[in-house]
Amino acid sequence: xxxxxxxxxxxxxxxxxxxxxxxxxxxxxxxxxxxxxxxxxxxxxxxxxxxxxxxxxxxxxxxxxxxxxxxxxxxxxxxxxxxxxxxxxxxxxxxxxxxxxxxxxxxxxxxx
Length: 112
Fold this sequence. Notes:
Blueprint: E1 22-27, E2 30-35, E3 52-56, E4 61-65, E5 69-73, E6 77-81, H1 89-92, E7 97-100, E8 103-106
Antiparallel strand pairs: 1-2, 2-3, 3-4, 5-6, 6-8, 7-8
């Protein structure tokens, strides 16, 4: 883990394991991290839960699941995490912007 991988202090990961977070991209004032899902039955998370989490750190927003994972909120717009080898034209042809080989964003805004 590098210093860039670290989530901002006080960030909520809502299902993502913060110690596994890795920085993926930054766009429009928002940073996107990828992490493993939490294995915590008491919190409603199933052990060995499949998938991955996409974290929008500044908005304390996390989306977890099988690929592709989409994080969408009126608070910031949309971000999508896709697997290696994904055909980027499927998203870029509909207005998504590629900010990392596996991260696409659309309609980003920072509504504090």
